[in-house]
């Protein structure tokens, strides 16, 4: 048996990639530059596609290859390009102006990760990790953490643009949870989600542009002054 | 006990001799990356030689702390050098708690350095000391977390046991916890040795300097001891980094052949780490002082995640 057919090896690669996904998510919380944030998101999606591919390979689940390919094409290439173009077009200030300062945000996301691990612990069955069927079960903790940190980013960032990005990260967390627990949703659901995401980003892009046009700023806290 | 006297001597001499060389190599590498010629790699030795022969100026306001500091800084770094496995998994000296003693001996040296900076009574010294303490207060927890990650998987805080465990497990460094801990320890290494995103080792007059501000009043042999101590500390941290995470080629016992082979591997690993550090230093700009806690917070979070993931994955 070659080493690349060994489920142990697959498991190790999976945890490694999942750990990097988590690190990238935390890097996104710590990063101030909008463009860098978009690129981190692209790298994260790329790793996610890698995880999907690995699971597909070891579980012989061909439909996951399609999900992996879509992740790669859409989230790692198309969306980042769209978003970057938007940043250049709106010409917004590069600094993202968080509500809570960066070191505290990092500590909070560390705490959220711990919560994610604690929650996932109850799902963890170490006895079964050796068989290929349970491959990637231990990435659930990472998925929950991604989810929580995505929420946190959405709350703590003032600029509408970062909230779009936070939504995408949150979706990454959902995707990871789906593929690590159930080897992906049915293909039609998967396709629906991807299409939904694409449309959502486009609509949000227009919305962000409008906010910028109307208020000369992307600060969503200014929206509360809107009265009919 | 007697069997460890010769190894202790060998390791002590090796540390003393290699430490300035590493500083020199780093400088040269940086210079080459910036398309300068740079000084020869032997320059730190020449500096030390010159400083040791010179006279000293001691400020009138200075107390005994000023004179004690260089010795404490140098000796703590040298003792720590004996406590970590360098070319052989067996460290010649093992004091209370192993790795904890290493961390706190380094902290003792830093504490005296800060006192020495304050003692001369110049504004620059106080400035440097306060900055050094601010940074180390955040760097130390990150260092501890990263080290505990390794200690937990080896079930011991004794560095010899940790090294033996590391050698027995091939490819362990691919585990997520190890990679996260490596990241944390690398950031701590950058911060503790005053390298570029945190402090600039190449300047003597810049308002943002940290280490250089503390040693501004020192001259002659005292300065030589402090500089030598600083390069020893740098080598200690680098050794800790390469040997705990990449234990390839660590010899199992003190035989002539083992030591020679271990030495070769050790030098290659050090050289690679130097390349990496020089690359990081050249590609990054120095951070504003108020941004440094952010970088160290990243190290802290990485360390914490590493510790968590040893239990989960």
Can you walk through the features of this model?
The complex is a heterodimer of chains A (about 230) and B (about 325). By secondary structure, chain A is an all-alpha fold. Helices cover about 75% and strands about 0% of the residues of chain A. The longest helix of chain A is centred in the middle third of the chain and has 29 residues, at about 60-90. In chain A, about 40% of the residues are buried. The mean pLDDT of chain A is about 80. Chain B is mostly helical and about 325 residues long. Chain B has one domain (about 1-310). Helix content of chain B is about 70%, strand content about 0%. Chain B has helices at about 5-35, 45-55, 65-85, 100-120, 125-155, 160-170, 175-190, 210-215, 220-245, 255-285, 290-310. The interface of A and B includes residues 12, 107 and 124 of A.
Rg of chain B computed from alpha carbons, rounded to a whole number of angstroms: 19 Å
Total strand segments of chain A: 0
Main sheet specs of chain A: none
How would you state the average pLDDT of chain B, rounded?
88
Largest sheet of chain B: none
Shape of chain A: globular
Q: Which regions of chain A have little confidence, pLDDT < 50, spanning 5+ residues?
A: none
Counting helices, strands and paired strands, the structural category of chain A is mainly alpha
DSSP strand tally of chain B? 0
The percent range for strand residues of chain A is: under 5%
Strand content of chain B: under 5%
Order of helices and strands of chain B: HHHHHHHHHHH
Low-confidence stretches of chain B: none
What is the H-and-E element order of chain A? HHHHHHH
Share of residues in helices of chain A: over 70%
């Amino acid at each position: 048996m070659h080493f690349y057919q060994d489920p142990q090896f697959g498991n190790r690669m999976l945890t490694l990639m999942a750990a990097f996904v988590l690190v990238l998510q935390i890097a996104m919380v710590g990063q101030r530059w909008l463009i860098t944030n978009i690129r981190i998101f692209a790298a994260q999606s790329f790793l996610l596609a890698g995880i999907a591919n690995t699971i597909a390979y070891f579980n012989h689940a061909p439909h996951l290859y399609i999900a992996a390919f879509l992740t790669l094409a859409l989230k790692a290439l198309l969306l980042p390009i769209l978003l970057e173009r938007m940043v250049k077009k709106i010409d917004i200030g590069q600094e993202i102006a968080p509500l809570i300062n960066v070191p505290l945000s990092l500590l909070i996301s560390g705490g959220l990760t711990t919560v994610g691990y604690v929650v996932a612990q109850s799902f963890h069955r170490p006895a079964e990790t050796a068989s290929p069927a349970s491959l990637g079960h231990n990435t659930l903790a990472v998925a929950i953490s991604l989810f929580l940190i995505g929420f946190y980013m959405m709350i703590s960032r003032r600029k509408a643009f970062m909230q779009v990005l936070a939504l995408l990260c949150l979706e990454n967390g959902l995707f990871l949870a789906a593929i690590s627990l159930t080897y992906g949703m049915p293909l039609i659901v998967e396709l629906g989600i991807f299409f939904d995401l694409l449309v959502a980003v486009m609509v949000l892009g227009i919305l962000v542009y409008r906010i910028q046009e109307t208020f000369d700023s992307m600060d969503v806290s200014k929206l509360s002054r809107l009265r009919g | 006990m007697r069997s460890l006297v010769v190894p202790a001597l060998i390791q002590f001499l090796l540390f003393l001799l290699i430490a300035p060389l590493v500083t020199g190599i780093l400088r040269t590498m940086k210079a080459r990356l910036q398309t300068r010629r740079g000084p020869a790699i032997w320059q730190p030795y020449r500096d030390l030689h010159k400083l040791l022969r010179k006279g000293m100026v001691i400020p009138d306001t200075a107390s005994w702390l000023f004179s004690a500091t260089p010795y404490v800084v140098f000796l703590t770094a040298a003792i720590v050098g004996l406590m970590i496995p360098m070319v052989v998994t067996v460290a010649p000296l093992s004091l209370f708690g192993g790795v904890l003693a290493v961390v706190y001996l380094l902290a003792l040296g830093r504490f005296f350095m800060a006192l020495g900076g304050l003692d001369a009574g110049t504004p620059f010294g106080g400035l440097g000391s306060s900055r050094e303490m601010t940074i180390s207060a955040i760097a130390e927890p990150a260092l501890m977390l990263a080290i505990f990650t390794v200690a937990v998987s080896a079930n011991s805080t004794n560095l010899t046991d940790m090294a033996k465990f590391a050698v027995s497990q091939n490819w362990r460094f691919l585990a997520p916890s190890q990679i996260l801990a490596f990241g944390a320890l690398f950031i701590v290494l950058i911060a503790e040795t005053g390298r570029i995103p945190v402090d600039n080792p190449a300047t003597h007059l810049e308002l943002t300097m940290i280490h250089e501000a503390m040693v501004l009043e020192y001259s002659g042999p005292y300065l030589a001891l402090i500089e030598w101590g600083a390069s020893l500390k740098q080598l200690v941290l680098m050794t800790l980094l390469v040997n705990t995470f990449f234990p390839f080629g660590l010899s199992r016992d003190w035989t002539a052949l083992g030591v020679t082979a271990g030495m070769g591997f050790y030098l290659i690993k050090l050289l690679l780490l130097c390349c990496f550090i020089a690359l990081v230093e050249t590609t990054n700009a120095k951070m504003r002082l108020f941004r440094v806690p952010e970088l160290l917070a990243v190290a802290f979070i990485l360390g914490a995640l590493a510790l968590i993931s040893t239990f989960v994955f």
